[in-house]
Specification:
Elements lengths: L4 H9 L7 E5 L3 H8 L8 E5 L1 H6 L3 H7 L8 E8 L4 H9 L7 E5 L7 H8 L3 E5 L8 H11 L2 E2 L2 H10 L4 H15 L7 E2 L2 H7 L1 H4 L4 H9 L2 H13 L5 H21 L5 H6 L10 H10 L2 H19 L6 H18 L1
Parallel strand pairs: 1-4, 1-5, 2-3, 3-4, 6-7
Length: about 350
């Protein structure tokens, strides 16, 4: 069955006896993982499985769900990463005579045709929920909510800045806030306020300034420079996820500004409203890209970058090669737009 977020959170914290599994899917995998951590009490024994393991042994999921904890306490089952390869295991779980331990299946952006998704949405013993990357309006609110958990206060303008620097990615936002809390020695019992100088000193934008040439070459269609930047960064041990996040920040910025252009505003007027929000050295490049990239192409590029991040994190995935491939795809698209 489909569930809204409040229904799902209540069920995760206190799993109903008639719910055997939760399917947490959607493009915001960090959001799905945050929900997964709510499953059962904090002291529950956690059994972690992967989709590949269940593909090879479909009966194991039902067995683990019916097993009694070694110490007699609560027990929860986590399956990640997962996809349609887990379907036989999930069907066996549904058909099992008993399954006392709740199961959370964490999947990525499943297609509407996914058999696992269809099963979870129709089975009365399942709850399915999709997590999406926060949009420009919701991301600052998410920053403020996560900041409170770290004992941090943050103004709305700085919350937006932090969200933009993290491309709206919940996991990156959480990492940034943990870093700010450490820097300020903040905790729920020692609340501190995030100020602009803290973000300037230790924020993600400050850390990844050496990625600017990579971002400009990819989004501007300069294949030669992109290739040399990938070689240089790899030699310095910088590859994979940091490259995705730097590129996502640029695409998120372009998406926001392009929306204004497609509502009838000129590129020059949109750029003028940004003031110092865009580094002065990057303004000409951003303006040029803004005049070329459509909202549809930006959205497609962001979706592909998120999928590349999922592949990097997945066991047995292509790793950094998937990131390089997507950066070259974006670069070739940008070259065609010139």
């Amino acid at each position: 069955m489909k569930a809204n977020k409040s229904q799902l959170e209540r069920a995760l914290k206190s799993p109903p006896a008639d719910i055997r599994f939760f399917l947490l899917y959607g493009p915001d995998e960090s959001g799905s993982r945050a929900l997964m951590k709510m499953l059962g009490p904090a002291d529950a024994e956690r059994i972690e499985l992967s989709g590949a393991e269940l593909k090879n042994d479909p009966a194991r999921l039902a067995d683990e769900a019916a097993a009694i904890s070694l110490f007699g306490g609560p027990r929860v089952i986590i399956v990640e990463p997962a996809g349609d390869e887990t379907l036989p295991a999930v069907e066996a779980l549904i058909e099992a005579p008993a399954a006392g331990n709740p199961v959370a299946i964490v999947a990525g952006a499943l297609k509407p045709t996914s058999k696992l998704l269809k099963l979870a949405q129709t089975a009365p013993c399942a709850l399915a929920f999709a997590s999406y990357v926060p949009d420009a309006r919701d991301a600052p609110k998410l920053v403020m909510e996560l900041a409170r958990e770290q004992g941090l206060g943050v103004r709305p303008d700085l919350a937006r800045r932090i969200a933009d620097s993290a491309a709206g990615n919940r996991a990156v936002i959480a990492q940034e806030l943990a870093k700010f809390a450490l820097f300020l020695d903040a905790a729920p019992e020692r609340p501190k306020q995030i100020e602009a100088d803290t973000v300037d000193a230790v924020g993600a934008a400050n850390e990844e300034g050496d990625l600017s040439r990579l971002v400009e070459s990819a989004s501007g269609g300069d294949v030669k420079t992109l290739r040399s930047e990938l070689v240089r960064l790899s030699s310095e041990g910088i590859e994979g996820i940091p490259l995705i996040r730097a590129m996502l920040r640029r695409m998120t910025l372009l998406a926001k500004l392009r929306g204004e252009v497609e509502r009838g505003n000129s590129v020059d007027s949109v750029m003028a409203t940004q003031g110092k929000a865009i580094f002065w050295k990057e303004k000409d490049a951003v303006a040029a890209q803004l005049s070329r990239w459509s909202s549809d192409l930006i959205a497609k590029s962001m979706s592909r970058l998120l999928e590349a991040e999922r592949q990097v994190k997945a066991s047995g995935g292509l790793g950094p090669l998937a990131v390089d491939e997507e950066l070259f795809a974006i670069c070739r698209q940008a070259a065609r737009l010139r």
